[in-house]
Amino acid sequence: MAVPGLRHHREDARGRGLNDTGIQNIQGNHACAVAAVAAGCRFFAGYPITPSSEIAERISVELPKAGGTFVQMEDEIASMAAVIGASAGGIKAMTATSGPGFSLKQENLGYAAGAEIPCVIVDVMRGGPSTGMPTRPAQGDFMQSRWGTHGDHACIVLAPWSVKEIYEQTVRAFNLSETLRVPVIVLYDEVIGHLVETLDPGSVDTGEITTRKWAGGDPAQYRPYACGEDDIPPMARPGDGYRSHTTGLTHAENGFPSQDPTTVDRVARRVLGKLARHNDLVEQVDCYDLDGAQVLIATCGITARAAKSALRLLQDKGIAAGLFRPVTLWPFPEESYREAARGKQQILVPEMNAGQLIYEIQRLTPPGVPVAGFNRLDGEPITPRQIAERVEELLNHD
Amino acid sequence: MTDVPSAEFNIRDYLRTELFPHFMCPGCGHGIALRALLWALHELGISKDNLAVVSGIGCSGRVGAYIDANTFHTTHGRPLAFATGLKLARPDLKVVVLTGDGDCLAIGGNHLIHACRRNLNITCLLLNNEVYGMTGGQVSPTTTEARYTTTTPSGNHEPAFDACKLAEAAGAGFVGREMTLQTPALKNLVKEGMSHNGFAFIEVLSDCTEIYGRKNDLGESPEMILAQKAEFRSKDYGMERDEVFQPRSLATGVLSRNDHEEYTAAYRKHVLSKASS
Amino acid sequence: MTGLQIRFSGSGGQGLQLAAKILGHAAMLDGKSIAFSQAYEPTARGGLSRADLIVGGGEIDYPLVTALDYVVILDDVAVTASDGLLSSASTALVDVERVTKQPGGGPEVVALRLIGTAREAGNVRAANIVSLGALAARAGIAGHDCLVEAIRQSVRKEFVAFNLEALERGRALLEAPAEKPAPLGACR
């Protein structure tokens, strides 16, 4: 049985110099694919969707080289299910999509959160809702990334702002997902996804590559969701003799369904609390010029890069402004934000949506400090000048 | 819970008896299907450690938990997609999917046809009881026409799927159907399906006594199971529907086979071996 | 840092994306870092096409162009696309045949026989590389050896020699700007 198109695919790969592992100009989506494989990802299931498809295209080349498996599934739902299935089999797995596809994945994302199955989901944001503007950037999934699935659940969302950081955060996503048995979402906008920047993968400090803790010891004593001090249960690998049960139903430590109120409450609180317990691993923020700043700009992704440039434009006009950027967007780095906001007279939250991040910022900002938004809904990125002008406008109102 | 069963088939060697009493209603055919599956596993000598059972949502979805193996109770309609990832990641595992008529043919219909097309070495048992039992007896894609359910108060006006024809047309390597009445034949069919190197789709004609049977005055479990004898016949009798006497007549036995290349073999041959490292 | 901001613009199919990629590759080979972005529109031929490049010495703050230092314009459809990004500090290299309008913002306009030179070299589709040669001669950006190497690594083997010739012809246009550029619109 021939596999149509395979020969052409490989030629394309050579034409693009994909074997080059040294310093290179590389697209954000490609960097994501390369980083996933470097992090130990050996399974990818996906479905084509703009503007994320380059991740699937690139990893379909990279995974077989590493002995891994790429499969294009029949839909987004199946992709997410297959990723969870592969991870349940003990293999690091990832999928990638954009807003509408991310919505379709949400049910199974809830399963991964509930059953604590590590997996990485990339969401490259485009204009929405619905088909919206497939080729234009937006930041409309800030809330979907945290609250898209149903019920109380734990998940981590990482929000890179450059090609280099897509690489770093994709590796980090796997490490966090494996260490904490939690779904991790890598969330970035179309601008960063399609941006080509100079990257030397060898020079990126990704830290140690981590793999989940495997069940050991006597199988007769093994309880799939029993854990020690760290609140992270060791996972049984099929074939290792543990023969455990995994379910999306609420379950007891023995893995079997339970609706006993005490048990359900205990397990739910552990799962919901495990990220706070490991906040030292989870939280990452990036701040600029906070000391002495009157104004604090809080945002992420491409908009944060505009904000960073705006800081200098404002400086030239004698306005001291600082930038707070949650690299880990969810769980929101609450204490770090409060620290960053201390003593500021004005907070600005620019974002490529009608106002999502601003809700979190308003919630955490001390009463009396005004929080303003700057929102673009037109499919165009926010520019440094627009942010600077908005800051000036806000200050002139005082 | 040893992984070494006795030479004679003893169903308790394969069950998580600590979970008993089980959830199935008295007279439910799913228990017979479970027995046939475990019997087949025993005769094939499949290690419980090496067995992964993936199920979806509904009564069929709850059956897997009683098997002393690596069991995964996944989301509604998705067990085949989940099993696809599991099997691709771990070709060394023997993967069995337990699904129902709603799970497999309605919400999961797209996954079924693509699982058939891919022909991955998975055995899928569709436990067809013609109804959404877990949610209280709503109409399903295999509910017989004119039958009453909680969402067809005037009788079902939609035609039913022939799941086996669907699977065959979509490219499944092995397709068969059997009724719970013929437990040894069902066991043998499962054995044959599991021995096939490719996607094996087996429709098990089960019964829902408690909800569907009661709603339609089909009698108690013995009557419903015995009715299978009148309504279904081996394909050896020919495939034509006998309109006069057997309006629901569906053929049983091995219905189709093909020798399409198994997916993981194709992947190794066409992708992995050509990838330059 | 902000870096040097460059745009290649024209109509789809003129090879502008490739020209920008080659220049970015050359800059990388020269030890610089780049940010390359393009308009992702569902147009392939005839519509507006633009490819933006920022070349810097370190990490680039904002990777999208905000004030162009150089713009190459190969077609009238692209003239207004850079409105708001050009000023008197900008330089626009425009094709004398296909560009008849004046770019806004008051840049220094250098009208060159970019397409005509490519035609003379043997293939009108090499206008992108001719432009690259001209731009490199004017703006520096990457060393000549890096440009040559970038072309070698970016185009198919059988087209390397021709593209290198196109690059040289482009350089020659600005290294010896013999004739005074014709007034815009006059050559049609």
Describe the structure.
The complex is a heterotrimer of chains A (398), B (277) and C (188). Chain A is built from 14 helices and 16 strands. With 398 residues, chain A is an alpha/beta fold. In chain A, the strands form 3 sheets. In chain A, strands 2, 3, 4, 5, 6, 7, 8 and 14 form an 8-stranded mixed beta sheet that branches. A 5-stranded mixed beta sheet of chain A has the order 11-13-12-15-16, sandwiched between helices. A two-stranded antiparallel ribbon of chain A has the order 1-9. The longest helix of chain A has 18 residues, at 163-180. The N and C termini of chain A lie far apart (73 Å). Chain B has one domain (26-274): Rossmann fold, CATH 3.40.50. Helices cover 34% and strands 18% of the residues of chain B. Chain B has an 8-stranded mixed beta sheet with strand order 2-1-3-4-8-7-10-9, sandwiched between helices. Chain C has 188 residues and is of the alpha/beta class. Chain C has a single domain (4-175), classed as Pyruvate-ferredoxin oxidoreductase, PFOR, domain III (Pyruvate-ferredoxin Oxidoreductase, domain 3). The model of chain C is unreliable at 178-188 (pLDDT under 50). Classes of the chains: A alpha/beta (398), B alpha/beta (277), C alpha/beta (188). Chains A and B meet through helix 3, strand 3, helix 4, helix 5 and strand 10 of A and strand 2, helix 3, helix 5 and helix 10 of B.
Layout of helices and strands:
The complex is a heterotrimer of chains A (398), B (277) and C (188).
Chain A: H1 6-15, E1 24-27, H2 28-38, E2 43-46, H3 53-65, E3 69-72, H4 76-88, E4 93-97, H5 99-115, E5 119-127, E6 133-137, H6 142-147, E7 156-158, H7 163-180, E8 183-189, H8 190-194, E9 196-199, E10 245-247, H9 261-277, H10 279-282, E11 285-288, E12 295-298, H11 302-316, E13 321-326, E14 328-330, H12 334-341, E15 346-351, H13 357-364, E16 371-375, H14 384-397
Helix pairs in contact in A: 2-3, 2-7, 4-5, 11-14
Chain B: H1 30-44, E1 51-55, H2 59-63, E2 70-73, H3 79-89, E3 94-100, H4 101-107, H5 109-118, E4 122-128, E5 131-132, E6 138-139, H6 163-170, E7 174-179, H7 183-195, E8 200-205, H8 209-215, H9 221-231, E9 232-234, E10 250-257, H10 263-270
Parallel strand pairs in B: 1-2, 1-3, 3-4, 4-8, 7-8, 9-10
Antiparallel strand pairs in B: 5-6, 7-10
Helix pairs in contact in B: 1-7, 4-5, 5-6
Chain C: E1 4-11, H1 16-29, E2 33-38, E3 48-56, E4 70-73, E5 91-95, E6 108-112, H2 114-121, H3 127-139, H4 144-154, H5 160-175
Parallel strand pairs in C: 1-4, 4-5, 5-6
Antiparallel strand pairs in C: 1-3, 2-3
Helix pairs in contact in C: 1-3, 1-4, 2-3, 2-5, 3-5
